[in-house]
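EI: anyone free to look at a 455-residue chain?
SC: sure, send it
EI:
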Amino acid sequence: MAEVYRKNGSLEIKFNEDRTQVIVNVYPASAGGESITTSEILDRLKSMGVTYGIREQAIRDAIHAADDSNQAVTGIIVAQGGIPKDGEDAKIKYNISHGVLLKPLPKRTDSSGHTEWFALDPAKMVKADDELASILPAQPGTPGKTLTWPIQAITPKPGKPSALNAGQNVRMSDDGLHIYAAQDGYVCLHGEQIIVHALRVFPGSITGQALNSATGLVVRGNIENCQVNLGGFLAVKGSVNGCKIRCMGDIYLNDAVECDIACDGNVIVYGKLINCTINTCKKLLGFDSSVIVGGQISASEGVETAILGADDFTATNVVVGINNMIQLKGKEIEEEMNACEMNITRISSALKPFTTLSGQEAITEDKRQLVTKLQSQKRSQDTRIKELHNEKRGLAIAAKEHIVSHVTVAKTVYPGVMITIRNGAAQIETTMEMVKFIEGPGGKSVDMEMLRKAA
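SC: here you go
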């Protein structure tokens, strides 16, 4: 018969990584050996330098469990210091559904791929000063402390701050915890940036009004006999008749008749443009069934349309490769500079009585605030004048640039059309299909290329 040897119980004891816990594995005795005792573990803890946090009941329970089951009991925490509590990440509360915010601007289903301004989601429309989101800051967490002397603090993992930031036409509060719309418009969330497309939506038709806005304008009906001056884009679902339009952004039209249009962006036409004067420093882009008949078209970067002219030989003049907007923009700059100078004169006159006072102590608080406000306004006007001078110099440079452009007619161009590309001109005398007009050698003539038919 094999001899059985007595084996006393044993233990393994160690600190965790940051020395905030002591962990024990208890192994039972066998063949009548002696079990580990509570005092043995307490002595080991003392020798390790543990000064507090000893869990005697956990020690006793572990020893009894090992003896009763005759199996090892592992991973028992027999001493615990201060466990660091990690911080919590910042939380964002959106005042519009997060899923709705993530929806991009809707797109047209035709070949243009442009924004469908007439399918905007009403749930994403906001007013200036509307709160868009609030942020609960990240929490730093609670430090832990070691079990051994000298007791040391254990730094917790801090919560991650919010990456949400304010994009165009959006402002953040001084404490960085609230985000507001800075303009009326259409709100979108792009990644971690929230933006507002500055615009107004007019649900019906407009007749005989002066429309002035620093933002974009979407009109679901018609516009007739209006003066329109916009700092953004213009999109009209219905027809535009007898209007004068000055726009800093793109213009989206279905049909326009006898309008005078000037813009810094592209003029985009989906229907008919009849007897209009168009002046843009970019392109006139016609899509699918677009028709341009009559009028004067000046688009420095080029013209694209399906049909140009009419079978009754209506006179239609098209000029590309020349930036005719420079003269208009120069005039606008001069007018704004004059307005700034007049404002500075008025502000200086308003400030003059205060310059004769002996000291700030003679000015009441209300007057001191007025002086500060007037001085700020004067600095703002001075800054704007400097910006306008820079814009004026930019125009002088732009006037010397060689603009490569062309006129593309996807379907038909009729006699009666005159095409000018820089210093060259061509009178169309016969009906032509699918043709592209380009600048000839030396810039003094107009050449023609036939377009390839789609496969």
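EI: The radius of gyration is 39 Å.
SC: 👍
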